[in-house]
Amino acid sequence: VWFDSGSMPFSQEGLEKLGSPAFGQVADFIAEGVDQTRGWFFTLHAIATMVNDRVCFRNVLSNGLILDKNGNKMSKRLGNTVDPFTMLDKYGADPLRWYMMTNAQPWDNLRFDEGGVDEIRRKFFGTLYNTYSFFALYANVDDFTAAQSGPDHSAWVPVEERPEIDRWIISLLNSLTVKVLVAYDDYDITTAGRLIQDFVCDQLSNWYVRLNRKRFWGGEMDSQKAAAYQTLFACLKTVALLGAPLAPVSMERLFLDLTGEDSVHLQPMPVADETLIDIALEERMDLAQRCTSLVLALRRKVNIKVRQPLSKILIPVLDHSLADKLEQVRPIILSEVNVKDMEFIHDTGGLVHKGIKPNFKILGKKYGPLMKEINAVLNGFSQQEINEFEKATLEGTYSLSLASGPVSLERDDVTITSQDMPGWLIAADGPLTVALDVTITEDLRREGIARELVNRIQNLRKDTGLEVTDKIRIVLEDRNDVAVALQDFSKYIAQQVLATEITMAAAPSSAHDVEWEEGTLKIRIEKS
Predict the structure, then answer these.
(1) Rounded Cα–Cα distance for residues 264 and 252 (Å)
(2) What is the rounded distance in angstroms from the CA atom of residue 65 to the CA atom of residue 316?
(3) Residues 78, 81: Cα–Cα separation, whole Å
(4) H or E segment and range at residue 433
(5) Measured between alpha carbons, how far is 310 from 299 in angstroms, rounded to an integer?
(6) What are the residues facing 512 on neighbouring strands?
(7) How far is Cα 89 from Cα 87, in angstroms, rounded to an integer?
(8) Torsion angles phi and psi, residue 177, rounded to 5
(9) Mean pLDDT per segment of 10 residues, for the chain of length 528 residues?
(10) Which residues pair with 32 in a beta bridge?
């Protein structure tokens, strides 16, 4: 008796072997092309039913087709095929695998774009590598090892005693673990990969590490510094464990370099500690990130660099809860956007002029025949009525009176805009609105120059191969703008770049030319 599916024939002897106890287990899942639904999938079930009187597998991951980037089926005739071995040689197995796993669900057709593979390699794997390299650089300087506190980390700084930024990323890490394990259990590898990728790029690297760099620089290994190392170590280790099924080679290298333990593939999956998940803290930090993004977008709008300090942010608040949340993350916001002060205002009259109009895409489905009447009423709203609408829809709905009767509106049913005030820029994200004072005073300008000098000197330190702990002497080209900035900020500059001496000269010898405004600036640095 033969059962043929493709190139997999089964003889009578083969069927008898399949019926032995060794082959009696039911597979958790099987993956195969969608075109094999009535072929290979059915044949396996038919064989298992006849031999073992049970199904062959419990779940199916049905793979879609791989198309070119324009959505066309690949064929030699069209010349749009891709050599997988070329991709493997060029980008590596893990970036290619991660791209194919996360770009689309397995059962959907995948539009293969080589640029997408390169983006994954740079943005995700590059970011993860740079994050580990940052950790390793300073951990080696401070001789930090996870084993210092024993195999169970019993001597680590208790999480509840760590700074709020540490508790936030640990909360997010445990939330990530819960979500990824649920996705894996549901065979939803695309969601699992995207969750890990967003955590590494957006939260761990772009927020936690960036906000905590100074905790790793210099100084003694006190509890605050130890907590930073321990927190970042835990994040990297958990990411390696969670990502191992999707990137087995890269996560193996990361895990071994990080821990020195046995293979990552011999470790159990991490277990989330849900007592460390603080939803309120995660919401506050998300609010800080959104506020920061709005202010940075306003800076880009008028081409003001982040290193240039500004004086004030105004935030209209509709209730005390929003103000309380923002107040708790005030230092983070002001530091990230380089603004001196943040003020909450409850009466926006004369400061922020808002407009309101229907979101036709959403409201049209709800109240199609009434859209003209709704639009007319909203267009006549006063500033006070817009504020009342915002307050009502924070956690509920707003009853809009029409001639034909009242209708209930939610926040997403409308679009609320804010107009810029003279000397200010305004942006909004849902209920969050920020106004940024873009006036640059002479004092702010001098501080901005000092920050630019720090940036140029730090880049020179890297380019000249100085160690992160090396102290230096600096000679700057004598220019009016630089001299004025040094009068007030020489101490700040010295602290930031580990300088023991800063002097000026008309033409410093053996100096480097660095980009400066529309020209160059000569700077000489030497190890002291």
Answers:
(1) 5
(2) 50
(3) 8
(4) strand 432-437
(5) 10
(6) 523
(7) 5
(8) -60, -45
(9) 40 51 68 76 86 86 85 85 91 94 88 92 96 93 75 77 94 97 93 96 94 84 89 96 96 94 94 95 94 94 94 86 91 94 77 82 87 90 85 85 88 82 80 89 93 93 88 92 90 92 90 88 91
(10) 62
